[in-house]
UniProtKB/TrEMBL annotation:
Protein name, as recorded: FtsW/RodA/SpoVE family cell cycle protein
A GO MF label: lipid-linked peptidoglycan transporter activity
Coiled-coil segments on the chain, per record: none
UniProt lineage: Bacteria, Bacillati, Actinomycetota, Actinomycetes, Kitasatosporales
Cellular component GO terms held in the UniProt record: cell division site; plasma membrane
Pfam families per UniProt: FTSW_RODA_SPOVE (PF01098)
Major localisation: membrane
Topology within the bilayer: Multi-pass membrane protein
GO process annotations (BP): cell division; regulation of cell shape
Segments passing through the bilayer: 23-44, 50-69, 81-99, 124-141, 150-168, 188-205, 226-244, 250-266, 273-293, 347-368, 389-413, 419-441
Cellular location(s): Membrane
Keywords for this protein: Cell shape, Membrane, Transmembrane, Transmembrane helix
InterPro entries with a match to the protein in the record: FtsW/RodA (IPR001182)
Length: 468
């Protein structure tokens, strides 16, 4: 007796989602942040801080909400991006709260403004708003390729955001803020994401023309004259921002991100060379005519031999790093609050360097490096050119911002006035960077998602099985 069985030779293989790995890493991230909070309280007062349970509940709730949304709407996303962002945000909240306990900062604020308002509760609120935006991006943005439709609209929106601060009063020598009553917004933080969308859409269409070279000189392929137009326009825009807003950080971020994406799109080293030369020429030119930028250059060249506020900040920051040594003074036991009003924003990295030491500082920067690495890995895995360029652009913008902030605080480059992502006090920065992480998670989910199983076909291969 024989039996004939019909089977198909094609089957779907489901890829692991790695959401349980993400959950485990989130638990470690929350534990690190809570341990740091307790450590600061014990170092300052010798007892558990009164707000430890509130802080633990708050950071746990935010991490849990973000994880559940990723599990539901981005099942195959990279499992490291969210835990890395949570641990940085959590440590940032701890460092800001630690500085809120400084008696020197409290007395200085009361002398200057008549009262002291702690920044840690506000930063927790900004973190919650950032998580809400993170959730909104993942829920509403089903496919990152939808953003390609808004290539030129995003350019217009980014230009408006970059120009608006010119019409508002300068703060600390730079016009980078929009003040609407009690609300202060730094539009450059949001513009970096929007303009990355424009660059991705534009370069995806124009990359073949930009990759052409007319001649070879000193081992470099020189682009044709008419193809230099885009980089000249972006260079001119970055210089105008630097001149009218005296915002060195946004100019470097804006132009650097474009050059990185241009290089990735065209694979021409000549664009990198032109970009470095043009950024150097622009920075030197503006430093010679802008007193604010010139003062920051002087503070960079010799912070111990000038009398400006920037020199005082940079010199105190360098001494904070030196006082930290290899293992640090311990959380809550440093003196970085001597830097002044920018201690918990521009110069919060000095507190990390002093209280965590060189070893802790390297681990801290490694967290940022891992976010950039996961972003680049996402770009490599993306299946569409727009997604590749967008992931590279967002990762490059994040890396440039970390570099210019860390370099300015350490005295490697002039101060830029930007804030350390997720760590420094400021609502615009933490909210915008949570949106950036959400877009990277959406791209990684699309890239890692397995292909759908093929539909059954009546013409499928038949296999005859004969049983005695």
């Amino acid at each position: 007796m024989s039996v004939v069985t019909n089977t198909t030779t094609i089957g779907a293989i489901d890829a692991p989602s790695r959401r349980n790995t993400e959950l485990m890493l989130l638990g470690i991230a929350v534990a690190i942040a809570v341990f740091a909070y307790v450590n600061v309280g014990l170092a300052i007062d010798g007892k558990l801080p009164a707000g430890v349970f509130g802080y633990t509940a708050g950071i746990t709730l935010l991490a849990a909400v973000a994880h559940l949304v990723v599990r539901k709407f981005a099942k195959y996303a990279d499992p490291l991006l969210l835990p890395l962002a949570v641990v940085l945000n959590g440590i940032g909240l701890v460092m800001i709260w630690r500085l809120d306990q400084s008696k020197r900062l409290i007395k200085r604020a009361e002398a200057a403004w008549g009262s002291f308002s702690p920044d840690a509760p506000k930063q927790m609120l900004y973190s919650a708003i950032g998580i809400a935006l993170f959730v909104g991006v993942l829920v509403l943005l089903k496919d990152h390729r939808i953003l390609q439709r808004y290539t030129y609209i995003s350019m217009a929106v980014a230009l408006v955001l970059l120009v608006l601060p010119m019409f508002f009063p300068a703060r600390n020598g730079a016009r980078i803020w929009i003040s609407l009553g009690p609300i202060n917004i730094q539009p450059g933080e949001f513009a970096k994401i929007i303009i990355a969308v424009f660059f991705s859409g534009y370069l995806m269409v124009k990359r073949d023309a930009l990759a052409l070279a007319s001649r070879r000189f000193l081992g470099l392929y020189l682009p044709r004259g008419r193809d230099l137009g885009p980089i000249l326009v972006v260079w001119a825009m970055s210089i105008l921002i630097l001149v009218f807003e005296t915002d060195l950080g946004t100019s470097l971020l804006f132009f650097g991100m474009f050059v990185i994406m241009l290089y990735v799109a065209t694979e021409r080293t000549s664009w990198i060379v032109f970009g470095l030369l043009m950024s150097g020429v622009g920075a030197v030119g503006v430093a010679s005519i802008s007193p604010h930028v010139g003062a920051r250059v002087d503070a960079w060249l010799d912070p111990f031999d000038c009398a400006t506020a920037a020199c005082d900040q940079v010199s105190n920051s360098i001494m904070s790093f030196g006082a930290g040594g290899t293992l640090g003074t311990g959380l809550g036991q440093g003196n970085s609050d001597l830097i002044g009003f920018a201690t918990n924003s521009d110069f919060i990295l000095a507190t990390v360097g002093e209280e965590f030491g060189l070893a802790g500082m390297m681990a801290f920067l490694m967290l940022y490096g891992l976010i950039v690495e996961r972003g680049i890995r996402t770009a490599l895995a993306a299946r569409d050119p727009f997604g590749k360029l967008l992931a590279v652009g967002l990762s490059g913008a994040f890396a440039i911002q970390v570099f210019v902030v860390a370099g300015g605080v350490m005295g490697l480059i002039p101060l830029t006035g930007m804030t350390m992502p997720f760590v420094a006090a400021g609502g615009s920065s933490v909210i915008a960077n949570w949106a950036l992480i959400a877009i990277l998670i959406r791209i990684s989910d699309t890239a890692r998602r397995p292909a759908p199983a093929p539909a059954p076909s009546s013409d499928a291969e038949m296999t005859q099985v004969v049983r005695p």
